[in-house]
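Notes from hallway chat w/ T.B., transcribed later so I don't forget. T.B. wanted the structure written out for a chain they're using in a teaching module, and asked if we could keep both sequence and structure tokens in one place. Agreed to drop them here.
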Amino acid sequence: MIGGLPDLLRQFELERLEVNLFRGASRDIGSPQVFGGQVLGQALTAAYATVVEGREVHSLHAYFLRRGDFDRPIVYQVDRSRDGHSFSSRRVIAIQNGEPIFTFSSSFHAAEPGLDHQATMPQVPAPESLPDWSRPTPEVAERLPEKMRRFLVRERPFELRPVEPIDYLDPKPQPPLQHLWLRTAGALPDDRRLHRCLLAYISDFNLLGTATRPHAADFSSDNLTMASIDHAMWFHRDFRVDEWLLYSMESPSASGARGFARGSLYDRSGRLVASTAQEGLMRVRS
């Protein structure tokens, strides 16, 4: 079966077609279209390939324009917008079948000292005390709708341990917030770029789902259409994605068939390492 961390790492080994042109392989992870985190992480990988060493991504902003086909590769075209004294800016267009499916802007910064403060990490149980949510048990899996089963039973490149209980079979209205411990399912090399690209990948997982919790809805429902519209991310401090990170997510609003969610990522010591925000389609069909 395709999956797991080794396969994910191969997805981030983009083929260079030209100086600013790259091609990445797609994967079916059980969702109806290419997983948004895959396109996000590969676009960041392509942008990084055109930036000098010593400058790390500190922010990115992306729009999902069309559904990606996981049976076809994706081409990434990089525009080297600016290389300044301490900042570099890049724009990336992801192309499939001759059409843009995704646009992406990112900024890179050479490290320098400055003022420092941060929000406090929420008080939650340690990951070791929580059950593994990488896959449902066989007993639960056989009772799930086919659409959800395809997504959940595959081998995953990340270990996931939710703080709030997840009821696959009988979801009930919950507050619009959730906390999730995550880390890669294996050790990684000391490569800051790789760790940031992988965090971009996993940051798209379950973020929009936070906006469905008050409505006891999930993407497996036949009358609910969900899709990412945009995604933004800010990197504040260095981290390792092969060590536990707490993803604290909340959804302050859902309206007009769109849901909005934002998240904060903390390491085990309580350092805020990254922030996210996303709006997505949440269309209920009668």
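Follow-up for T.B.: The first strand starts at residue 15 and ends at 18. Might be a good example for the class.
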